[in-house]
Write the structure tokens for this entry.
Amino acid sequence: MATTSEDSSPFGGEDGWNGSTGRHWVEHEDRHDRMLTSLTTRLIQAADISAADRVLDVGCGCGETSRIAARNAPEGEVLGVDISEPILARARARAQQEGLSNLRFQRADAESVPLPKAHFDLAMSRFGVMFFNDPRAAFRNIAQALKPGGRLAFLCWQEALQNEHIVVPFSVLASYGALPDIGAPGAPGPFSLADPDRIRELLTQAGCGDIEIRPAQERLRVGSDVPDVLDYFRHHPAASGIVGGMDEATLSKALHDLEAAVRPFQTPDGVFLGSSAWLVTAGR
Ligand SMILES: C[S@@+](CC[C@H](N)C(=O)[O-])C[C@H]1O[C@@H](n2cnc3c(N)ncnc32)[C@H](O)[C@@H]1O
């Protein structure tokens, strides 16, 4: 089940993704797609989609990876599943613009949605599998929807401290007295699958084998210039708990410090910060 309104984390599930976190995700769709370009390429290579594949995209967001899968599987079908209605509205609009008739979306919690058994050739996800309340149930549910011999391919983040795009902005904000809201240890959040042993354990109990967990390190283009990136971080869901409590003078000082921290990463092509993900593949 998704989390309830009692869970104040912006990444806790139903409320955050259907509320301000979801709005943030839609507003910054193009930024995120561009930011993740090189990681997306790695995921799609690992997913190795064939023309007739049936593909499940878990936590599909605004649907960039679903659309790529649909283009790569013109004789197959793609189902994007996501818990957030505002995000899916964007995904549906984009797929319609492209006229992708083999792609559909379903609003559902991937943890509990009744998926057809042994139906899909591939389940994939670009950073959409770290937000489950019950990851055991979720990975079991996803794995049983794969045909025997079907594949799983997903990206998830390594530890926050290995991710410059988190460390640079949030160490500044944390110096103002509060930690960013990125999920408590073991709770749903961007870093809940940072431990490869945990990934291996979850996938094994779900009935997967041939598990490979490879590091994927890329520089992310977070924005065009320093003011753009500052505005992005300032309104980031994980920052709202810190920034929201600041008076005007403190906020102005924090933004000044943030600007100084981000400036060294400006290049003629934009502001780039490092990232470390896991690229996970497995078979059923
Ligand atoms: C970090 S975003 C990634 C979105 C997309 N895969 C992308 O790369 O742009 C995480 C996505 O997972 C979705 N999500 C969170 N919990 C979920 C759940 N239990 N079931 C299905 N989707 C979920 C969110 O609504 C959000 O769209």
Residues 1-7 have pLDDT under 50 and may be disordered.
